[in-house]
Amino acid sequence: MLTSQHRLAILLHEGIRGTSGKTGLALLRFSEAEIVAVIDKQSASESLTQLTGIERNIPIVASLQDALIYQPNVLAIGIAPSGGALPVEWQEEVQLAIKAGISIANGLHTKVVSETALQPGQWIWNMRQEPPNLGIAGARARTLNCRRVLTVGTDMSVGKMSTSIELNRASHRRGLHSKFIATGQAGLMIAGDGIALDAVRVDFAAGAVEQIVLQYGQKFHTLYIEGQGSLLHPGSTATLPLIRGSQPTHLVLVHRAGQIHVKNNPEVVIPPLRAVIQLYEVVAGAAGALQPAPVVAIALNTHHLDETAAREAIIQTQQQTGLPCTDPVRFGAHIILDAIIQQ
Asked: Half-sphere exposure (CA, 13 Å, Cβ side) for 254?
């Protein structure tokens, strides 16, 4: 786990302005680690806050060599290039970090292997690995007494992890005994444990979710399970195992305000949200074979809107769906948490 004791540099080349930096931006927003530098050659010396809207006064530098002046002890790979492999020049930066005694947090499918012996206390965390001793899911999570809140989405990368984390934080502020269950690389770096669901063979994916939900379900009153993918996305395979493995008691639908089709698939139009709600509820309950899981609220991603437009979009979504709605990152998650508790 990346804790407050770690001094973190984030490898984020072309990720601030590009589309591959979701992991690094999530760390900037949610990690407990002390982040001392962001490495992005494209944006070096610019203001992180102005570029991202994240209120953290952290320098952006052009290279790992430039980051060494800030004395990081962990390098987190915060980008996910197409195909999951780092370009050669960025691999060289990772090896330079290892030679400097810096530990590596790697969420890519491609493993990092040291070219030199590690120093005492230094480590390489290749987190995309299948957990041991997996079996086939058997809907055993429905025997638990805890709330199991799963975030589901109209698309990939709309804010399911952020919503789950914000709900967990809001619960802690109210003194509720809850835990965030990470299922992706950024969530794992933030939470310190969980499962890298996309590293699990498909036959055992629901079983992997069930295993970790059973592990924590008797220890906490509420589990906030990080959603992945979308039932609407033609390339997504993660959402159904999450539903089946966690046997959710509540669903929170996450949507990007104004988005009308699945990203990079303009022919896949997002249906009206009421129809999407019905889809998720029918799938979760399996036409009555499994316990029902209502969608209790909408988490609306308004990052691309100014505040006035964001509030208007929230009101419009509430009117369209009849459900509580807010942007939990921008305005806090208390409205959604109230809906969960009252259900």
From this structure: 30
